Amino acid sequence: MRKADGYDAVVVGSGPNGLAGALTLAQAGRRVLVLEAAERAGGGLRTEELTLPGYRHDVCASVLPLAVASPAFRALRENGLRIEFAHPPVPAAHPLDDGPAVLVHREAGRTAARLGRDGLAWQETVGATARGGTPLVDTLLAPLDLPRAPLAAARFGPLGLLPATTLCRAVFRTAPARAVLAGMAAHSMLDLRSPISGGFGLMLAALAHMAGWPVVRGGSQELADSMVKRLGDLGGEVVTGTRVRDLSELPDADAVLLDVTPRQFLAMAGDRLPPRYRRRLARFRYGPGVFKVDWALSGPVPWRDPAVAGAGTVHLGGTLEEIAAAEAEVAGGRHPRRPFVLLAQPCVADPSRAPAGRHTVWAYCHVPNGSAVDMTEAIESQVERFAPGFRDLILARATRGPAELERHNANLVGGDIGGGLASLAQFAGRPLYAARPWRTPLPGVYLCSASTPPGAGVHGMGGHRAARLALADTRRRGPLR
Question: What is the C-alpha to C-alpha distance for residues 211 and 167, in angstroms, rounded to an integer?
C-alpha cells in the first residue's frame, strides 16, 4: 500500500458515508486518501450486470430520497457534485387484493384524494410532516443537535415515537390507508409493534412528497463515481483493492474516518481501545438481514392494477395486519410464509437500465440475521399475487442472501443493510450513548458508517458529521504529527 505522505486524512471505506466524509474534509482544504477493500469504490452504491449483458442492476442502494433531501448531499451539490436523478411518475404504490392500489404521489393532496375518508388524516400527519420541509429533515437527520425546526419536530415527535401498528390504527379508519403507512414503516426492518417504527413510516411517506423517491440515472454507481471524481478534483485519491485489517496498517494522518460497523472497528483496533469502551461497543445489536432477487424481464411487470406500472417502488404485503405479522415473524427469528416484499422497477424512471422494451426489477424481503434460507419462491409468489403472469417474463434472475451480501460488503453483517438494529435505544445511542458518538477514544479516529447517527440511508450524514467533528478537533488540538 502506498504511503499517504502529504495527506491530512485517511478514510477507510468508500460507501456514501465514507465518500461524504472525504469530500467534506477535502472541501475544507484537507488532502484525503480513501482506502477501499473492493475493486471498485461505492460500498452500497454499486451497479452491475448481475443477470444478463445490458441489464444494469443496483446491487444494494437504489431508490434515494435522502440523497436529494439530506443536508450533507445538499452541501455537496452546492460545492460542485453533479448528480442526475430520474423520478418515476409515481414514487410508490401499495397494491391490495380487493381494490385499487394506493398510490403515493409527489403531491400530498393528490395522494389524500384517493384515500376517501382518510384523506384529511393523511394531510394532517404525512402532509404536515412534508410541510416541515428541509428544516424538519435536517432536525431528524441530526438527532443529537438542537432542532432546526422545533415546532415541526414537536408535532412530529409524539407520532414518530409510536409503534406503526398503534399509529396506523389511531390515525386511519380504512384498511388501504393503514396498509400504505405500514408498508412505509416496514422499511425500518423493525417489528411494527416496536416504538419509533411509526416515525420511519411517516418520514418516508413525507419524503415522497418533499423530494420524491428517485433513482440515479444510469445506476447508483454513477453517484459513487461522481463523488470519487469530485474528490480527485479537490486533490484527494481513492485506492481500491486495499482491505484494512488493523489500524497499524494505516499511514500517519491527522484524522482517520472509518466507514465500518462496530464489529470491524473492534477487530481493527485490537487492544488499543479502553476495556469499558470495547464492552459497550461489543453490545451493539445488528438487525434482520435481507434476501434479494434481481430479475431481467422481457417486458414490464403485468400488475393487476395498471396504475402500479408507473411506480418506482412497490410494497407487496397486503393489509397492515399481514405486514405486521410478517415483520413480527422475522423479529422472532422465523421466516414468514408470505413475507413483506419491497420491489423496485427502476426502468420506469430510467429506461437505460435495460435493452429497449425490457426491464430490470429487484425485490427483497426481510429474514433473520444470518439466515441461510432461500426466499426466492416466497418473494416471487408475492409478486405473482399482485401481478399474475410475472414469472412468464423472467429471462434471468440473480439471488443474494445474507452470506453473499456480507461477502460483497463486510458492513452488511448477517445481511443487515441498515448498519445495525434501528430500535429506539440504538436510535439515541448509536453505536453507544455519547454526546459525539462519531468520536472514538483513540485520538484522531472517528466512526462514520450507518452504525452512527442518524443510521441507515444514503444521506452521507455519518461521514459529514464525523468529518466536521474531526476538523473541529484538529483546530483545537493541532496536528497529531
Answer: 23
State the Cα–Cα distance between residues 323 and 180, nearest whole angstrom. Answer: 10
> In whole angstroms, what is the distance from residue 97 CA to residue 318 CA?
7
Report the DSSP beta bridge partners of residue 243. none
C-alpha cell at 467: 468529518
Q: Where would I find the H helices in 132-196? A: 133-140, 150-160, 164-171, 175-185
**Which residues in 349-393 belong to E strands, given as ranges?**
359-367
Q: List pLDDT tens digits, range 97-144.
A: 999 999 999 999 999 999 999 999 999 999 999 999 999 999 999 988
Q: Roughly what angle, to the nearest 10 degrees, separates helices 71-78 and 461-477?
A: 70
pTM: 0.94
Helix (H, G, I), strand (E, B) or coil at 345: coil
Spell out the domains of the chain, with CATH numbers in brackets.
9-45+219-284+418-477 (3.50.50.60), 85-214+288-408 (3.90.660)
CA distances from 143 to 170, 207, 292, 455 (A): 25, 17, 31, 10
